[in-house]
């Protein structure tokens, strides 16, 4: 039974990593290449920039895939945290968002209070929320607000997109459902929560909360 449970957790880990890390980079690549067609006739230089951005995203997806394949041969290693959480989220959003979509990222509180494992998991959760807003919600405005205190970290991602009926699966393919599940599992692994509230034509709000360990016990 213990081996079966360990195997189940490992399968869930692989699914999360593939969906969130590889999936995010491929989503960026697809968005960049879609914009090439838009810019090519009137702005070849900008189209070239989009092609270069797509190639970088594909290269990163390949790197992560190789890393995951290597990790599958041993115990999963701790994931390096982003350098600057705010700047890395802004960079991800800029690469993902279509033209005409504004994404603002705000942070209150010192990042030094956030242990690396919390920073890394929060980054992946918020990237998934941003991807949903940009790819599925067709939002024009997205705002990310993060608040770090000595006791907890919280974040809200709010968009003015098309929203969805929470009583039904918004994506028949199940891809968005997997993304929401991944966000919740990452937060729950650190005793946190993810709450999603959405209504058709009224946008979506994702709220993340995770308690932080006492500062003397932080890595």
Features:
219 residues, 52% helix, 17% strand, Heat Shock Protein 90, 5 helices, five-stranded mixed beta sheet, alpha+beta, 5 strands
Care to describe what's here?
With 219 residues, the chain is α+β, with helices and mostly antiparallel strands. It folds into two domains: 1-77; 81-219, Heat Shock Protein 90. The chain is 52% helix and 17% strand. It contains five helices and five strands; from the N terminus they run αααβαββαββ. The chain has a five-stranded mixed sheet with strand order 1-2-3-5-4. Strand 2 and strand 3 form a beta hairpin. Helix 1 (2-39) packs antiparallel against helix 2, helix 1 (2-39) crosses helix 4 (116-136) and helix 3 runs parallel beside helix 4. The two termini are 32 Å apart. The mean pLDDT is 79.
SSE topology sketch:
Layout: H1 2-39, H2 44-71, H3 85-96, E1 102-108, H4 116-136, E2 141-148, E3 152-159, H5 175-188, E4 193-198, E5 204-211
Parallel strand pairs: 1-2
Antiparallel strand pairs: 2-3, 3-5, 4-5
Helix pairs in contact: 1-2, 1-4, 3-4, 4-5
Number of strands: 5
Radius of gyration equals 18 Å
The CATH superfamily of the largest domain is known as Histidine kinase-like ATPase, C-terminal domain
**Architecture (CATH level 2) name of the largest domain:** 2-Layer Sandwich
Spell the H/E element sequence.
Answer: HHHEHEEHEE
Level-1 CATH class name of the largest domain: Alpha Beta
In order across it, which strands form the biggest sheet?
Answer: 1-2-3-5-4
Our count of helices gives 5
On the 0-100 scale, what is the average pLDDT?
Answer: 79
Question: What low-confidence regions span 5 or more consecutive residues with pLDDT below 50?
Answer: none
| Largest sheet: number of strands, sense, barrel closure | 5 strands, mixed
- The name CATH uses for the topology of the largest domain is Heat Shock Protein 90
Fraction of residues in β-strands? 15-25%
Fraction of residues in helices? 40-55%
Compute the number of structural domains. Answer: 2
Principal-axes geometry comes out as globular
């Amino acid at each position: 039974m213990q081996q079966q449970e360990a195997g189940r957790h490992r399968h869930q880990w692989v699914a999360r990593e593939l969906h969130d890390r590889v999936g995010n980079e491929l989503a960026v690549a697809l968005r960049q290449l879609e914009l090439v067609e838009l810019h090519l006739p009137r702005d070849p230089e900008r189209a070239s920039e989009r092609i270069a951005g797509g190639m970088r995203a594909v290269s990163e997806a390949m790197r992560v895939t190789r890393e995951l394949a290597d990790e599958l041969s041993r115990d999963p290693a701790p994931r390096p945290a982003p350098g600057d959480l705010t700047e890395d989220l802004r960079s991800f959003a800029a690469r993902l968002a279509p033209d005409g979509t504004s994404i603002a990222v705000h942070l209150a509180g010192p990042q030094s209070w956030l242990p690396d494992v919390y920073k890394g998991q929060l980054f992946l959760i918020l990237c998934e929320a941003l991807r949903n807003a940009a790819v599925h919600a067709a939002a024009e405005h997205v705002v990310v607000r993060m608040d770090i205190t000595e006791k907890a970290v919280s974040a809200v991602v709010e968009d003015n997109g098309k929203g969805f009926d929470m009583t039904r699966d918004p994506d028949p393919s199940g891809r968005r459902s997997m993304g929401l599940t991944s966000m919740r599992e990452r937060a729950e692994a650190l005793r946190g929560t993810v709450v999603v509230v959405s209504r058709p034509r009224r946008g979506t709000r994702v709220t993340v909360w995770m308690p932080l360990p006492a500062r003397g016990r932080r890595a």
